[in-house]
């Protein structure tokens, strides 16, 4: 049916537009936080975070400390991890960042599935970037009313996503990237886990972690340690951990490898009170290994 808009009343015009399927923007109230207007966003149906709208950002961007909290709470799982990609920052520098899939991203009543997000290793704000904005028909900000106006696109399609969970060989997730879990400003340094090392059987989980120490903060056998790579075993049933292997790399480039005698003396221990280990255990124990049939 062709709609003729001339010589009809306002009420008739509204009815005609509805019949013709005209799309009306939804208005979402913005909140003022740290001097900027931000929009509430619900991630995977479980938590709401306030994002700054940034049309110059390629993806939805989440700082590492918040990403760690999401993984520790089970809101983001290892199956959501994607590849790493180089991003150009506002100052012109380039950083390699971990990408992951947000299975559900809701703004107001609009929900988009499989939105690509990236973990920003430098301190910053939560950014609602083009991986969300480009899938809308239109969007704008009403500065007087402090509202975000969004119109969904009928043809909106998710980006092509191949999660690491779709590529499982035996019981190990394939890939070759370290994912940072610790807060960027953590005085203890930086903690990474390697998703390619994840293995599991029953309640047991095995994985590798890397702890990068602040300069001149960790000493072992009289030498300053740059970073340590540890191989851990977790028992998800009784929440205990055991160290299986350790290699320290010193600031001068030399290495120390823990011998079998030292490792044999390590015992299963509980991790209560260790925020890093509690976060890793949550991440690993939520991951369910899939055996090849």
CATH superfamily of the largest domain: Acid Proteases
**Category by helix and strand content:** mainly beta
In CATH, the architecture of the largest domain is Beta Barrel
Query: How many individual β-strands?
Result: 21
Radius of gyration: 24 Å
Mean pLDDT comes to: 78
The H/E string reads HEEEEEHEEEEHEEEEEEEEEEEHEH
Query: Helical element count?
Result: 5
| Beta-strand residue percentage | over 45%
Largest sheet: 8 strands, mixed
Estimated helix fraction? 10-25%
Distance between the termini: 55 Å
How are the secondary structure elements laid out?
Layout: H1 10-19, E1 26-29, E2 31-33, E3 36-43, E4 47-53, E5 60-63, H2 64-72, E6 81-88, E7 94-107, E8 110-120, E9 127-128, H3 130-133, E10 136-142, E11 147-152, E12 168-169, E13 172-173, E14 178-180, E15 190-201, E16 204-212, E17 219-220, E18 223-235, E19 240-250, E20 255-257, H4 260-264, E21 269-270, H5 275-286
Parallel strand pairs: 4-9, 5-8
Antiparallel strand pairs: 1-11, 2-3, 3-4, 3-7, 6-7, 7-8, 10-11, 12-13, 14-15, 15-16, 16-18, 17-18, 18-19, 19-20, 19-21
List the main descriptive attributes of the protein structure presented here.
mainly beta, Cathepsin D, subunit A, domain 1, 8-stranded antiparallel sheet, 21 strands, Lipocalin, 293 residues
